């Protein structure tokens, strides 16, 4: 049974679910509810807009045995893509929140510090060896991401990990890995290079239910660590000294967070190819919406929902912004990410 009890502070509610209780700010609860509604709205739009879309009243009917074959085909094709945008956007949002907290820098996302480049290189290696299917791609992507993370971590380690040094090392490692994959594209067979190039554009086209189920299952297993992640991120955001004084074991905790973050981002890369911007922007937007004034660190739930809304919206733009043309969602997020990154750099330079 869920119950909400007012506290002495009108801005805070005490929530209780059985024996578990938590305190949550009223503003945070409202914003998270609105973000959840927005994520659901992008799914509904993905199912209904455009030629051949479902009527709003036919969405639930399309799931029943009595639905027409046409409605079921539309739901089969559009539903998996719409749900994938929400699930993968949430994965990228959480991954970005983790790495921005570990590095204590708004640029500390997996697409900036070289981890996506590692996942990309891992999948390219799998493709070059003839690997096909989600399992092979996932193994290559996660392995490549973890190897890149280990390289960045070890090269940046000097009596602990400094966030700025980790970002600089990550950019360098990412550049090396990107050069290696470019060299592969030049030297490999045309068919293999073409497969890698198409996959590397970053797209949700052709996301099938069986692949989404496998990816969602792995994401769900990883999500079991999220309650711990949500508990330690605010402590890490206070700084290493403060976190240590609270009894947090810094390096083992950071290592666990890196593994969770890499798995979440690499999982998306394995299915869609590299998608930029979402992991970079979602935690920052969530912090401003959910915890105005900055708070003590990125909100995990807020980051996940903002990531879902961003990727869902970007995929709608990819499908319908240019009439008669569908572009990879990765191209849309790169454009949005470039604008956001320029704004962020100007903002940070204005503070210094």
Automatic annotation (TrEMBL):
Q: Which Pfam families match?
A: FecCD
How this chain sits in the membrane, per its record, is: Multi-pass membrane protein
InterPro entries from the UniProt entry = ABC_BtuC-like, ABC_transptr_permease_BtuC
Annotated keywords: Cell membrane, Membrane, Transmembrane, Transmembrane helix, Transport
Question: By its UniProt entry, which Gene3D superfamilies does this protein fall under?
Answer: ABC transporter involved in vitamin B12 uptake, BtuC
Where in or outside the cell?
Cell membrane
Instruction: Report TM segments.
Output: 29-49, 82-103, 123-156, 163-184, 255-279, 327-346
Q: Which domain of life is it from?
A: Bacteria
The reply to whether Ribosomal protein figures as a keyword in the UniProt entry is no
Q: Which PANTHER family match?
A: FERRIC ENTEROBACTIN TRANSPORT SYSTEM PERMEASE PROTEIN, FERRIC ENTEROBACTIN TRANSPORT SYSTEM PERMEASE PROTEIN FEPG
Give the family per the record: Belongs to the binding-protein-dependent transport system permease family. FecCD subfamily.
Instruction: Return the protein name.
Output: Iron-enterobactin ABC transporter permease
Species:
Aeromicrobium alkaliterrae
């Amino acid at each position: 049974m869920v119950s909400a009890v007012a506290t002495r502070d009108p801005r805070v509610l005490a929530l209780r679910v059985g024996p578990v209780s938590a305190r949550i700010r009223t503003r945070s609860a409202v914003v998270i509810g609105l973000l959840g509604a927005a994520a659901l709205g992008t799914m509904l739009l993905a199912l209904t807009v455009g030629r051949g879309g479902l009527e709003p009243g036919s969405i639930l009917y399309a799931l029943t045995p009595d639905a027409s074959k046409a409605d079921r085909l539309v739901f089969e094709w559009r539903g998996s893509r719409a749900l994938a945008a929400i699930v993968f956007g949430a994965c990228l949002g959480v991954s970005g929140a983790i790495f921005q907290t570990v590095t204590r820098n708004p640029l500390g996302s997996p697409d900036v510090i070289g981890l996506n480049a590692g996942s990309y290189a891992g999948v390219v290696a799998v493709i070059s060896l003839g690997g096909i299917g989600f399992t092979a791609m996932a193994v290559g992507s996660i392995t490549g991401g973890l190897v890149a993370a280990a390289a960045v971590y070890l090269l940046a380690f000097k009596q602990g990990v400094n966030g700025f040094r980790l970002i600089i090392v990550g950019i360098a490692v990412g550049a090396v890995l990107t050069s290696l994959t470019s060299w592969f594209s030049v030297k490999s067979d045309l068919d293999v290079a073409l497969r890698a190039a198409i996959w590397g554009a970053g797209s949700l086209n052709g996301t099938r239910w069986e692949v989404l189920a496998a990816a969602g299952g792995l994401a769900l297993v990883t999500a079991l660590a999220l309650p711990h992640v949500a508990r330690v991120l605010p402590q890490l955001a206070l700084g290493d000294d403060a976190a240590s004084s609270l009894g947090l074991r810094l390096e083992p905790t950071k290592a666990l967070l890196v593994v969770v973050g890499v798995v979440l981002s690499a999982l998306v890369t394995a299915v869609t190819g590299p998608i930029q911007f979402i992991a970079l922007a979602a935690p920052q937007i969530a912090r401003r919406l959910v915890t105005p004034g900055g708070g003590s660190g990125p909100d995990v739930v807020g980051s996940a929902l903002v990531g879902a809304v961003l990727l869902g919206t970007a995929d709608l733009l990819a499908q319908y912004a240019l009439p008669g043309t569908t572009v990879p969602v990765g191209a849309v997020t790169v454009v949005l990410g470039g604008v956001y990154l320029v704004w962020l750099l100007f903002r940070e330079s204005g503070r210094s």
